[in-house]
Structure formats: structure tokens, C-alpha cells
Amino acid sequence: MDLGQSQRGVDMGPSAIRYAGLSRRLRDLGYRVQDQGNVHVPVRDTLKSTTLVPAIVQACEAVYEVGKRAVESQAMPIFLGGDHSIAIGTIGGVSHREPVGVLWIDAHGDFNTYKTSKSGNVHGMALAVLTGRGATELVNIGRRGPTLRAKDVVLVGVRDLDPEEKKALKESGIAVYTMRDIDEQGISTVIKKALNRLRQLSRIHVSLDMDSLDPSEAPGVGTPVAGGLNYREAHLIMETVADTRRLASMDIVEINPILDQGNTTAKTAIELAVSAWGKRIL
Q1: Could you confirm whether 2 is annotated as catalytic?
Q2: Domain assignment present for 5
Q3: In a 3-state reduction of DSSP, which class is residue 5?
Q4: Strand-pair partners of 58
Q5: Is 108 a catalytic residue?
Q6: Is 106 designated active site?
Q7: Among this protein's residues, is 205 annotated catalytic?
Q8: Are 106 and 209 in contact (CB under 8 A)?
Q9: Is residue 1 part of a domain?
Q10: How many separate domains does the chain show?
Q11: What is the pTM of this model?
Q12: Which of 211, 217, 233, 251 is catalytic?
């Protein structure tokens, strides 16, 4: 889906991840893998409406049902984006029956609403929507009211927030670990604190925005921000998540092959994903 932002190209992200071999790498770890194909998303150039919100709602409703059915069948879904607005549907679906702990790894807070957003792009509102803030038609996707409780969310890797978004995040009750926190405390301490925050939940959902990494590690993203996670820091996050044995679902979002270099970002995403799902160095 590329309806949630103005930078075109992220709709090709799933193809880039498939091409780089995600299914094969997961099978090598011993998983049975079934590619369910693509959820239908309208092509934005064919939409006659001046607003993309109805199409975003339609796509996220469909993703919600996919996530819900996957959990009911005891599968562990991995959702390939596309922009981060898909998380409104993915996290809604996997939390339909019971709460999940969400580890949101992102350079941005994604905590704007239409009142605070400078761009009006929905991918910068997804986490706010999931916690019940913003446009009603987005908040009520899948089910009415907030999808997530603030105490069940941890945001890691943040380094680019709008002024009003910063204020809203501080007041929200969400645990936020910025890049300064990582610099000062080290990634090992930060991820252990983050997962300790979610210790009361039996299932963890990782929502991985590839712009959480430094652009030198992941150049193929639409909204790069300097000073992000390096390769080993990102891997340690995933390896520590794997150690909990509670990872139940995952988003991989914001890969833009048009802006990438030799599919580097998709390849890096796969290395991180297989670490999260149990690949070990030794």
C-alpha cells in the first residue's frame, strides 16, 4: 500500500522482500511457510476521490480480517508493506481476541492526527489511531474504539518528531526510547527494558519500519533520518525478541525499491526478520 504517504514506490516493497527470499530463509529455520498473496489495495492513480482515506480504510479492514484469521488458525503472520498505515489493520487483526504487546521500531513517532500533522499523511498517524486518537473512520477499523492500550506499546529508535506529536507522545503513557537513550544506555539495556515493559503479555507483535535504521544501512526508504540504528543494534533487538519465545506476528514496512541500492534494504529486512524468528549465530 502506498496510500498513506506522498512518496511513491513503497507498494513494491512486498515484491522486493519476496524476491530477496524471505520464504526460503524462514523454511531454512524449520517453519512451514504459506504466502497468502497480496491484499487488494486500490491503485491510487485510479481513485477519483480527493481523499485517500476511504481506500485506506478498505485496505486496512481487509488486512484486519487476514490477521484475525491467521491467529485463529494458530499461524504467525508476517505482513509486508507498503507504508506503515497497514499496521492499523495488522495489529487490529492480531489483537482481535486478546491484547498483544507491540514493539514499534521506527525513526518517527507515527503519533500525529490530522490536527497536528504537517503533511496529512496517514502513515504518520498509525500509532495514534491504534491508541484511539484521530479520525473516527480510522480508529474504528475492525472494531470500535482504541485497539491498543498505551501500557502495551513500546516505541524504539525515535529521532524525528513534530512539536505537537512530541507533546502528545509524552502525555500518552507509551514507553519511548529515543536514539539518545540508545546512545547513553546501549541497545542491550534499552531492549531489555522495552521487553520487560511487555512482560505481562503472552504475545508480542514487532512493527518494523525500515527507516528505524540509519540510511547507510537501509537506503531504500521514503523518509530517511540520519543517526539511526546500525546493523548490529537492529540485530540485537531481533535476537533479544527471539529469546522471549513470545513473538507471534510482525510487520515489515516502508521499503521503497525505487530509492534502494541493489535491493539492500529488503535484504537487510530479511536478515532482521530471520533473527527475530530464531536464527542464531551459534
Answers
A1: no
A2: no
A3: coil
A4: none
A5: yes
A6: yes
A7: no
A8: yes
A9: no
A10: 1
A11: 0.96
A12: 211
- The most distant pair of C-alpha atoms in the chain lies apart, rounded to whole Å, by 54
Q: Measure the CA–CA gap between 153 and 175, rounded to whole angstroms.
A: 7
Could you say which of 11, 106, 233, 260 is catalytic? 106
Which of the following is catalytic: 2, 11, 83, 123? 123
Question: Active site includes 209?
Answer: yes
CATH of the domain at 137: 3.40.800.10
Of the candidates 2, 239, 254, 260, the residue annotated as catalytic is: 254
Lowest mean pLDDT, pick from 1-5, 67-71, 128-132, 175-179: 1-5
Active-site option among 96, 108, 205, 235: 108
Residue numbers of the domain that contains 29: 10-276
CA distance 71 to 218: 30
Instruction: Name the phi and psi angles at 227, rounded to 5.
Output: 85, 30
C-alpha 27, offset from chain centre: 23
Indicate if 235 belongs to the active site: no
Q: What is the pLDDT of residues 189-241, one digit of tens each?
A: 999 999 999 999 999 999 999 999 999 999 999 999 999 999 999 999 999 99
The pLDDT tens digits of the residues spanning 248-265 come to: 999 999 999 999 999 999
